[in-house]
Design brief:
Layout: H1 2-11, H2 17-20, E1 31-33, E2 39-44, E3 50-54, E4 64-69, E5 76-83, E6 89-92, E7 95-100, E8 103-108, E9 111-117, E10 128-133, E11 139-143, E12 154-158, E13 165-166, E14 179-184, E15 190-194, E16 200-203, E17 209-213, E18 219-224, E19 230-234, E20 239-243, E21 252-255, E22 265-267, E23 272-277, E24 282-287
């Protein structure tokens, strides 16, 4: 039942975008932060600040970092260093979790600690990418796989004190052979987008998967507002899409011309969409509405 409700949140209804408070286009960014090299992911901290992962120079060991950005001034300062190519970020309480080449790290007071090492995963990792919160203290992390036709991507479930396990079906369903962005639903349900397939799909956590939207390009980041409207970034196409009840789950282009938009996030309190532009070396901030929760 919870899985059905999650799917209906996208596919049902006939309200206009304006009636839901979602603009047909996002317009120009209200702010651009240009002091972060190759930003990839962003998370809202318990202090309200924006935390942004940074590749630095891609594939250069040890030059990756996480920056803390003041939402009022746009000032960015380094929060944690010594990472490789940090991707997905997730706050659980006051701890910041980061997916990186060596595994999944926990950061407290700016100090990274490797908790889920690559060697402890049940299969060879290719590129750990996004993180999402799960039920009962669990987390999910995506492996976007390799460039082969098979893709070899998967989603892993992380439980405290246990070795990572594969989310049922995530390593066999074609739509997620290159799984990138993750978004938690209710209970064990989970949304995921495929980087090479351009497909948004969802699982009930028990091996069943359903495709919800296609033609999303090189789908990378995904986040949602309270009414179920989803935003997805197309990394290669430089596009942001909106997927809502208004269009029966069909993607609507709301921004273009971005430079490798990556793992975006909604700042619900401020009504903002935060978009790291990886090759643009900037964090672009778009106004959504006065309230998104």
């Amino acid at each position: 039942m919870r899985f059905l409700v999650m799917l209906l949140a996208i596919s049902a209804g006939a309200l206009s975008l304006q009636a839901q408070g979602h603009p047909a286009t996002l317009g120009r960014p209200t702010r651009v932060v240009e002091t972060i090299p190759a930003p990839e992911s962003v998370a809202i901290g318990p202090d309200g600040a924006w935390y942004v992962s940074s590749f630095g120079e891609f594939d250069v060991k040890g030059d990756g970092a996480v920056y803390r950005v003041d939402p009022e001034t746009g000032t960015a300062e380094k929060y944690a260093t010594g990472l490789d190519d940090p991707c997905g970020l997730l706050f659980v309480g006051d701890a910041l979790w980061v997916a990186d080449r060596g595994g999944v790290y926990r950061i407290r007071r700016g100090r990274p600690e490797l908790v889920y090492a690559a060697k402890d995963f049940p299969r060879t990792l290719h590129f750990l990418n996004d993180l999402a919160a799960g039920p009962r203290g669990t987390m999910y992390v995506s492996d976007t796989g390799d460039s082969t036709a098979a893709g070899r991507g998967a989603v892993f479930r992380l439980e405290p004190g246990k070795r990572p396990t594969v989310v049922p079906g995530s390593d066999t369903v074609r739509a997620q052979s290159s799984v990138n962005g993750l978004l938690p639903g209710t209970g064990d349900s989970l949304y995921a987008v495929g980087f090479r397939t351009g497909v948004l799909s969802a699982t009930d956590g028990r091996e069943a998967w359903k495709d919800l939207a296609r033609n999303l390009g090189a789908a990378d980041g995904i986040d949602a507002v309270a009414d179920g409207t989803i935003y997805v970034s197309d990394n290669a196409g430089g596009i942001l899409y909106l997927i809502s009840r208004a269009h029966g789950g069909q993607p609507v282009k709301v921004a273009s011309g971005l430079k490798a938009p990556a793992d975006l996030a909604v700042d619900h309190k401020r009504g903002l969409l935060l978009v790291p532009e990886n090759s643009g070396n900037r964090l672009s901030v778009f106004r959504l509405s006065q309230r998104t929760e």
